[in-house]
Amino acid sequence: MAQSETPLLDELEKGPWPSFVKDLKMAGQKKAMSRDLLRQLELSYKERIGHWKHGGIVGVKGYGGGVIGRYSDRPDLFPGVEHCHTMRINMPTGWFYTTKALRTICDIWDKYGSGMTNFHGSTGDIILLGTTTNNLQPCFDELSEKGFDMGGSGSALRTPSACVGPARCEWACYDSLDAINDITHTFQMQLHRPMWPYKFKIKCSACPNDCVAAIARADLSIIGTWRDNIQMDPGAVKEYAGKLDIQEEVVELCPTRCMSWDEKKKELKINNKECSRCMHCINLMPKALAPGKDKGATILIGGKAPILKGAMISWVLIPFLKMEKPYQPIKDLALKIWDWWDENGKMRERVGELIERVGMRVFLKEMGIKPIPQMIRTPRANPYFFWWPEEVPQKPKSA
Amino acid sequence: MPTDIGPPDYHTMLPPIIARNYGKWKYHEILQPGVLMHVAQGGDKLYSVRVGGARLVCTDRIREYCDIAEKFCDGYLRFTSRHNVEFLLDKKDNLEPLLQDLKQRGYPVGGTGHSITSIVHTQGWVHCHTPATDASGPVKAVMDELYDHFIAMKLPGKLRIALACCLNMCGAVHFSDISILGIHRLPPSLDNERVPKICEVPTTIAACPTLAIRPDPKTKGVQINEERCMYCGNCYTLCPALPLMDPEGDGISIWVGGKVSNARSGPAFSKLAIPFIPNHPPRWPEVVDAVKNIVECYAKGARKHERMGEWIGRIGWERFFEVTKIPFTDKHIDDFTLSYDTFRSTAQFKYTG
Amino acid sequence: MSEEMRAAILEVFQKNLKKGKKKLYIKEVVNELPQFPRSEVKVCSQKMLDDGILAYWSSGSTTYLMLKEEFEKYRHEAEDHPEEGEEKA
Predict the structure, then answer these.
(1) Chain C residue closest to A338 (CA)?
(2) Tens digits of residue pLDDT in A109-151
(3) Cα(B29)–Cα(B25) distance, integer angstroms
(4) DSSP assignment, residue A242?
């Protein structure tokens, strides 16, 4: 038997978890690019270092993003990946597909690209991994003809994404899919034509379980919540009493201790005024408890990964906002934030970093949002603080 | 060709049972690991079968998913935010045959409830230009080892693992129960012949979070104060003439106790557990052992429903380092901005060791 | 779209080019033209991108603008692909 060209990667074909090496080999049977992708990866495994150079190519006609340029630094060894660019394709919201749509994408990608993909990339896009410069435009044209469009990259709105929402979740406090789909279509210019200081992400989770990690990575995080009482079906609570230790597993783990359980009567009481809507009790007893009826979302601002000034988690900006078509309040807020950030932000400064630099009070004033205690964990402890000139009678100016 | 058409209308992708019951779901149950049953207000029942997959997949793999969906699900399927595939059934009769079919093909079914679901991860050596490690390889090696936790639900709470191959952290890996993060440990090597030719010097200087880069008037390039460099790689992103990838310098760090959900405790960053493990491809045995050790200590010590960070919060970090036998070093003590917020400022602590 | 603004934007690029600066953030362009409203400079630059006078350049995470002809030259230099008959980005 001929010796394998990829002895290190072959080790990753073993074991029970699905192997990406098998997929690279499958694609390699059809495509020289994937064969060389595998061979170059083997070299990386041997040398413990990457072999890709920087970008440069940015897109298809008219667009400033959606393509990540990649070139091998060893085209002498791996001519098949001399160009190996990524195309980001905006996924259908919620990542639902008909097999017809998926097969269409596969056929187009086999025609123009390496046959390798990510389902999906971290931001949510369909990632088509590896094509040549010359194939970018025709590939896009054919995808476009079949109803697909590019996602975002560079200093632009990045492809917004949503949790599964009301399509398959009883906890959805607003229609996260419709909101994201609507927002994405409204802001196509901002998505495809980068004109900002840096990237901007919007993510919609329909309840505080935050299944798309909106709070951790979106500049504008929209997380579903409610403002009335948790809905309860007392009969169903009794049913759970046989399966769960409601006192220990539900009541005692409630962060605000706003519940009590009568073991004898099998009755659960909730002091809704004190509930902070963490979802724990609802998660444990979905048949018995549900979010309230007056639903909407908490709007948070500033989340981001470490580059540049360290990772940030989004901060509460608006505790409760109704999320209803056509989502005008949230769109107006986004436009206002973008305008302020665009004017005041340094290049490559995310909006959270700008707020940290100039102060939340400045941001709130610009947005016309009143400060309230829901925005903070604790008030300031240090006595260095600013006053607006109009708040303090000014000393007469000396002549 | 028209531009800016946006994503296709997701309504056209929804299976009829979902279109019919959109926004009208009443509750759900986990029937067995990897199998969810959602019940609609009108009584319709939707069965979702969750299958773990490599994120890096070829078109023929996707066609195989399509074959399965056409055979059992009238041609509908979805992907989750964690790279799983979900087959959506409106008939319970199809459930067993689907599970059998998946078993024959060797696909893992699981990832629900108190389990370890697929690892969210980045590109790594297969496509990224700044990676400090590979992504798909360590993920495959770790998931092979933790496979039994994917197909069963025997942990105290859910456990989410994520991997990013550098500090850019594509994806929210810094908010996971266990984060596997590629790091560099050497400052960029400086090529001042190329810097003025291919880089914008002011931009490169502004890219440094620790102000370690200054202009070099002699070469019209830059100087790097290596003592200040924290190896973030941001300068390299803007200036290809400052490469910092290095086989000995690069490797993996492990962070623990993060979460995004609000259930019980609020969302939290992952915190540093292990500052460095060298890259040992193809199977990263030390990384696999380290993750497994943390999972096992958690499984043994945590109370029911406690996530990793809640368990550590209850026992204290000093106890965490004791039970996991992870050495505590000066690397664990923050020295970037706001570091003093992480120092202990109470006489309350536990004795260990 | 005033011809005056177009010419001014073009001049910003040419002036920086002489200083050896080929890639500009849109913000730098805006900042050099305080006499025009920011949003209009952006709209005008967008038009010049569509018309093929300017071109985008992206690191993947950050986007710059360049003169189209410089973009073509630059890409070949920076990426060491002198022989490629590449596309019109």
Answers:
(1) C39
(2) 999 999 999 999 999 999 999 999 999 999 999 999 999 999 9
(3) 12
(4) H
User: C35 to chain B nearest CA, in Å?
Assistant: 24
Q: Which chains touch A (3 or more CB pairs under 8 A)?
A: B, C
The answer to whether residue C86 sits within a structural domain is: no
* Distance between CA atoms of residues A281 and A284, nearest Å: 5
Asked if residue C27 belongs to a domain, the reply is: yes
The answer to whether position C89 is within a domain reads no
Range of the domain at C58: 3-80
pLDDT exceeds cutoff 60 at C79: no
Number of domains observed in the structure of chain C: 1
| Chain C positions in Cβ-Cβ contact with residue A64 (cut-off 8 Å) | 49, 56, 58, 63
> Which pair of structure tokens corresponds to residue B269?
């960053």
ipTM of the assembly? Answer: 0.96
Whichever domain contains C42, its CATH number is 1.10.10.10
Of the partner residues B198, B200, B237, the one whose CB lies closest to the CB of residue C78:
B198
pLDDT in tens, A45-70: 999 999 998 766 667 888 999 999 89
Alpha helix positions (H), chain A: 7-10, 20-30, 32-47, 99-112, 133-145, 176-186, 188-192, 214-217, 234-243, 280-284, 328-344, 351-358, 360-367
Q: How far is CA A236 from CA A244, B24, B46, B92, B229, in A?
A: 12, 18, 20, 23, 59
Residue A246 touches partner B, C-beta closer than 8 Å: no
Distance CA A107, CA A111 (A): 6
Q: Is the dihedral of CA A52, A57, A58, A60 positive or negative?
A: negative
- Report the alpha-carbon distance of residue A264 to residue A241 in Å, rounded: 11
In this complex, the residue of A177, A213, A255 whose CB is nearest that of residue B264 is: A255
Nearest CA in chain B to C25: B203
In a domain? residue C85: no
Over range B295-315, report the average pLDDT: 98
What is the number of other CB atoms lying within 10 angstroms of the CB of residue A143?
A: 23
Mean pLDDT of chain A: 96
User: Does residue A151 contact residue A90 with C-beta atoms inside 8 Å?
Assistant: yes
Average pLDDT for A356-381 = 97
CA nearest to A217, candidates A95, A315, A284, A303: A303
> CA-to-CA distance for A399 and B290, rounded, in angstroms?
71
